[in-house]
């Protein structure tokens, strides 16, 4: 089937008639009829039968429809990519980041970047990692920041900094002045713990370490983003294991931060398209991200290493 055959087929399926398809496609009825007949001639079987004045798909057409839907989605992606290539402003750097990183890192470093590049603009957005990958490949983003290393042949992955997860608890949750003192994983036994979504890149690592804790932590709340976990801790709902960037954004009067023992490592990655050389503004932004992220990791009690 040709693309025009597919367009006519879908228009008839949507409208139920040749006349309706002609209106949807802004062509004449004879033109739709001609394309339909040509498609059926090439296929060697009819696509529609007239039943009580309506065109009903044949069993063969219904089988084809599943594959046609895939082709249609691919065409939409092609059109979307073409539009992004046409409309992409040459002086605007489009940066995507997971919610925690967008809130903790980008606001602090953007003033410096804007000062260095007064003629450039920057568009900031928040996405989960799989959306960052899609946005990069569709050229809706120029760079993505995430704690998860994606496996995609079209992406270049650069380490910005490394560090460790920390425990964030309501102020006074542990007796004594223990902020900054390493917290043994065993100390989380029977603790009200705010769980992480199974989609979280560090969820499996945390579950592995908690598996030997007896009695296990009491997880009654689970979240998809670290900022939400932080808000729950601030409200006194329990303890959360989060990245240091999120932890440092919490209210210091209402919370306390403790590194974990053993260390639960985390890495901040920058994602770009592998077939493109980063522009000078992008390179400068990533340098600022690496420095800022490394400083925040150290401040939270980890041993950050900037790229």
UniProtKB/TrEMBL annotation:
Taxonomic superkingdom: Bacteria
Any coiled-coil regions, as ranges: 61-88
Pfam families: HTH_1, LysR_substrate
Keyword match Transcription regulation: yes
Claim: S-adenosyl-L-methionine is one of the keywords in the record: no
Keywords: Coiled coil, DNA-binding, Transcription, Transcription regulation
PROSITE patterns, per the entry: HTH_LYSR
Record-annotated HTH lysR-type domain positions: 1-58
Family: Belongs to the LysR transcriptional regulatory family.
Protein name: LysR family transcriptional regulator
